[in-house]
Amino acid sequence: MSIIAQYRGNSSPGQLVDSSGNGYDLVTVGAAVGNPSTPTPPEGDRWLAHVANHLATSYLKAPAAVPSAITAEGSIEGYILPITNGVNANMVFSVNDASGAGVIGQRFLMAIDPTGYPTAFRLYILQVNPSLILIDTLGHPMDGTTTQTFKVQWGAFGTELYLDGALIGSSATAPTIPTTDITLAGWSFNSTADNLAESYMDDIIIKDTVGAAISPGVLLLAERRRNWNN
Fold it and tell me: In this structure, what are the phi and psi dihedrals at residue 6, rounded to the nearest 5 degrees?
């Protein structure tokens, strides 16, 4: 198991710093992405991201070395606190190709939309080409208080989507991971006033191998113990 990057968002070492030690720090594109201390974050003293201002392009981007390490297999996991206004979709992450703004193209993305709002939300993975769609409408309230874990993993077996450790969707198709950017907490394409994240995110972990879906905080502790024993 190898952690490629980990983004915790805490006051120390800072919102944009890669806590894995690999130095793959995030950069902010456009307006600042908020990382408030309230409501109480699940890990540390601040959230990684919460975009409340819909009037400007605003997202976090990891360097190209991160997606380059997960082209064959990998996973992205973390905490989410789903919130929408009942209309707009919320980007969790997007792995991008080099096509221009406004084109979904080959992007592999995960988003939350308000289908079922306010008593449920829809979590989906989408890639247009090759076609990969995982959709699940979940009976969890979008009440701004229920933090959950997510994990999407892929490899020769295809793609799997987990919520709170439970498998909620799978496909025999694996995504195409272009070796460019990973975007967190915002749309990196066609960014408009209606398409920025309102949901909270925390402790995003990107790995180059797959495994059981567990709490990111537990994963961090397990990884530290493994390192201590080596």
Answer: -140, 125
Instruction: Please say whether the beta carbons of 79 and 149 come within 8 A.
Output: yes
Do residues 34 and 49 lie in contact, with contact meaning Cβ atoms separated by under 8 Å?
A: yes
Length of the chain: 230
Rounded distance between C-alpha atoms, residue 126 and residue 105, angstroms = 11
pTM: 0.86
Domains assigned to the chain: 3-229 (2.60.120.200)
The pLDDT of residue 23 is: 97
The CA-based angle 78-84-89, given to 5 degrees, is 75
Amino acid sitting at position 211: G
Would you give the DSSP letter of residue 96?
A: -
pLDDT tens per residue across span 3-26: 999 999 999 999 999 999 999 999
Question: Distance between CA 156 and CA 60 in Å, rounded?
Answer: 29
H or E segment and range at residue 65: helix 65-68
The alpha carbon dihedral of 180, 89, 161, 186 has a sign of: positive
The region that residue 25 occupies, defined by phi over 0 for left and psi between -120 and 50 for alpha, beta otherwise, is beta
Task: Write the DSSP symbol of residue 18.
Answer: B
- Give the Cα separation of 30 and 230 in Å (integer): 42
What is the rounded CA–CA span in Å between residue 171 and residue 161?
A: 9
Q: List CB contacts of 69: < 8 A, sequence separation 6 or more.
A: 4, 208
**Coil, helix or strand for 63?**
coil
Are the CB atoms for 44 and 203 separated by under 8 Å? yes
